[in-house]
Write a structure and sequence with these properties.
Elements lengths: L5 E2 L5 H11 L5 H29 L12 E6 L7 H14 L4 E5 L11 E3 L1 H5 L4 H4 L1 H9 L5 E3 L3 H11 L4 E5 L11 E7 L27 E5 L6 H14 L5 E13 L4 E2 L8 E6 L4 H10 L3 E6 L8 H13 L4 E5 H4 L11 E12 L1 H15 L6
């Protein structure tokens, strides 16, 4: 049974104001004026975007060729669409095909300097605080055995470092769709199927990084959380995608819970949270999906949400513990991404970490084509 109580997301005053304004939650006169001003700025953003893209499509600026073939996983919208989970899925898929992948990230909200950093599993991540490399990099390094995860601001330099210091044959570029300056082997664009993008406006008046029509620049479209989308909404989204990029393959995916564990690593059976009161705590781009996944396991869920990439403090844990007691929760459930930022402090209420993996619902052939393209690239000395 779903409970209505939800603590508001903790965010900066500016981001909180922006979200309330563009979402229409704030119906005041000042918010209406702000929306008009944001639309004007959005027009300038569109001109800059088009101009920058035109420089590369016209050949006035040459795209760089990375030291290793790159597969980009990106999106059209601000916020989470499941790129980290998709990157992990693709890395495992390439490994199973006998290809050695690496993952490249900018390290969002991290504090890495000019030199790229390569993380190798738990041993490497202990030398770098999460605040330096970013939560996504640490999570991927800890969960993907034998896959180097490289962090740095300049993607070409990061890939060159991987080519020199690792045995990686191909890189998965996290959030690379708007990185116009570099050639990619494949561009995969993720769209959250639970979000209606048909009426979204361009940033900063809305959540779109690019117009929906720009989907035609992609090679494949992956619809994430397709199992949680309303059937009518999913049908409308497919029509919108076909209208914008009718020739592109469309892959439907789901984020499937694959296991639970305690903070110290002890496994927990999925059945143990069935019919239990669970406080779902998350600082991710799509908290609704996380909460819905727990409900599907039979848990009775209340939610406490923080802004994406939020770093938990001891004070946060005190507030979470108080909220769990108030809701008479049997468990506090957090995502694996939250676990890498969780302070070293136990709560009186058990904290379980929820692991999930991306699974394909339909469009397996398109995933096989990614592997085929990678094999072809590795058999060639140059690629377009």
């Amino acid at each position: 049974m779903m409970k209505n109580h939800q603590a508001p997301r903790q965010s900066t005053p500016l981001s909180h104001w922006w979200e309330k304004t563009v979402s229409g939650q704030d119906t005041s006169l000042s918010a209406s004026i702000s929306r008009l001003l944001l639309q004007a700025v959005s027009g300038l953003y569109w001109l800059g975007l088009k101009g920058n893209l035109l420089l590369y499509t016209s050949g006035r600026k040459r795209r760089t060729c990375p030291a290793l073939p790159a597969i980009s996983i990106g999106n059209l919208t601000m916020g989470g669409t499941g790129k980290t989970t998709a990157a992990a899925f693709l890395a495992r898929h390439l490994q199973h095909a006998g290809i050695k992948p690496a993952i490249v990230l900018r390290g969002y909200r991290g504090q890495i300097g000019r030199e790229p950093v390569i993380l190798w599993g738990d041993e490497a991540t202990t030398g770098w605080r999460v605040s330096e490399t970013g939560d996504e990099a640490c999570l991927l390094a800890q969960t993907l055995e034998g896959v180097p995860v490289a962090v740095g601001k300049r993607r070409e330099a990061v890939i060159a470092r991987l080519a020199e210091d690792s045995d990686a044959q191909i890189v998965i570029l996290d959030d690379g769709f708007q990185y116009f300056r570099m050639n990619r082997l494949i561009d995969i664009v993720l769209i959250d199927a639970t979000v209606d993008i048909s009426h979204q406006q361009l940033f900063p008046a809305g959540y779109l990084r690019e117009p929906v029509a720009h989907l035609r620049r992609a090679d494949q479209i992956w619809l994430t959380h397709a199992d949680q989308a309303d059937p009518a909404q999913l049908s409308r989204l497919k029509k919108l995608v076909r209208h914008s990029a009718e020739e592109l393959p469309v892959v439907e995916t789901t984020h499937q819970i694959t296991g639970l564990r305690m903070l110290r690593g002890q496994p927990v059976a999925l059945e143990q949270i069935c019919a239990r009161q669970v406080l779902a705590v998350s600082a991710i781009g799509n908290p609704e999906s996380f909460e819905q996944s727990l409900r599907r396991l039979g848990a009775e869920v209340t939610a406490r949400r923080y802004a994406d990439h939020h770093y938990y403090t001891v004070q946060d844990l005190r507030e979470i513990e108080a909220a769990a007691r108030a809701q008479q929760a049997d468990f506090v459930a957090i995502t694996a991404k939250d676990a890498v930022k969780w302070p070293d402090r136990e709560l009186d209420i058990p904290v379980v970490v929820v692991a999930c993996q991306l699974q394909i619902i339909s469009g397996q052939q398109a995933v096989a084509e990614v592997v085929d393209r990678a094999r072809q690239a590795l058999g060639e000395s140059h690629y377009d």
